[in-house]
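S1.2 Input.
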Amino acid sequence: MSNSQSLNSYSAPDKSTSLLYAGIGSLVAAQMRKANILRKNSVVGARASGLAMAFAAPQKGNCEEAANYYRGIFNFAGHEVKSGPEGVFEVVDQPEGWAVELRSFDWLNHLQSSNRELSRVHARALILNWIEQKPDRSLRKINEKAQSRRVISWVRHAGFVLEGASEYFARRFYQSLTRQVRSLAALSYSRRSATERLASSIALAYGVLGLKGMEKLTGFALARLSGELEAQIYADGGHISRNPQILAELMNDLLPVREALEEARIEVPAGISGALERMFPMLRFLSHGDGGLAVFNGVSNLHHGLVRHLFDKDNICGRPLSHAVHSGYVRMQQGKILVLMDVGKPPLPIVNPLATMGPLAFEFSDEGNRVVVNCGSTPANGEKWAMAARSTQAHSTLSLDDQPAGRVFDNAIISALFNGQVVTGAKDIICDVTRSAQGSLTCARHDAYAKSFGIEYERQLFIDKNGRDFRGQDSFIPVMDRADKIDAKPFALRFHLHPAIKASLTNDGKSVLLVLSNKSGWRFSAKGAQIVLEESIFMPVNGAPRKSTQIVLRGTTGATDRVNWAFKRVETARKTRSASTESEPMLL
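S1.3 Output.
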């Protein structure tokens, strides 16, 4: 365990006193890293003078986007801006996410993919525009946030932008890269955010390996990257953020580093190769049958194309686990049914500023069709949407008395200690996964409502061996030091449906008919609560919320101690239309 890891807990503490100690520990760790890095490393003499090795090209970009850039239209983080004659980097008063993405230069991929000389000239003009922009203190933080992505993008696309470039452009380009790589080597390791430290470590590896003149930093850069990976990639292959999107994006940046080292016949450090070997099975674990990511803990992009691109590079094809204990997820798969369930605690904002309060939330897909989902996150639309996305109600799980299964700490002290709001959740989450000849069963319980309501919440999920019957039982269990009788409190069990699902309540109100985009059908029924259909949203599509539907089971604790529900496959659209006359599927 590294010093930085031992001084930082990546899961939110349960009590405010522990929260204070964790925050102080985070500050101390950052200062220790800063002192250590400045003492041990010198960047004097490191100066980029040319290209040393090529990195594998990223996923193919969008030529239409390249054309939009030429017309001055820039769509980032779900927000579109039309720039004037003064240039896009002079545009002010834009959302931070848009400004950071602009300055990351990841969009160079679209220009290179267009394979036109005009795009090459345009790319050079935009890069030079940013280099020669007058220093602006108000943009300092934004430029720092984009620094790691910018270095990676410039090194990856250097061959494209430098072909046919003037001596003046090449000189300014290498001068700017020298300053940025030196900054990454000297200071960015002290960043409080664990994900930013890992991103800067990857960017440093790109700069050191991809540029001539940086050779003296090679050993240091690879050791630093290996150390961060060992501290941040769990034994089961998940990332400490618990965000599937971050895992996929890290892999997309790490694979070219490994490939470049192998091409140059430089030994790949065990920390890098070992992390990737663990990450591939975990990415499969967190992917649905449609090739996209599961929506947990801040996912704002399903990344269908990226996931396929990464799997094409997987030479190991390791089989996913059933229970990723360290990452806090369960995967159940029988026949064509896949269920993914969150059984972990929210991490701190220094690891994931978008951590959510959705304990025991699950997603359910039928082959390539998502059925039950979580609402997900969005890179745009402001703080109001961000808080809504983190709420328990935005997840397919229980909310009791319309209260979240956790608490948000948000004040000046917390912000100073953790660089953002802190989400706490259950003190204990227990989970047991079994598989037999009959099918797969998961039993999990959390105590997030124990202190305020005297109730522990238990969820059992079962899929039969043929993947035709998916059942659940949600129970309200009195805590040991409370009376046996549970106080009457309203509850809601939510099942957010993917926007492609057509849902209709039967005339008797006892079941819901679901028709998927491929015309196959499911029938949902429940006992112990009233079934209603309500509006919902699904956000990880094109950066904008999309209208959808949710099944909600409403009732009152005390009146019932458990709710049973089931999804039963209806094989054809014809059977779906006559499903209201069938007997109810067997419940737990």
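S1.4 Remarks. Residues 369-581 form a domain with the Beta-galactosidase; Chain A, domain 5 fold (CATH 2.70.98.70).
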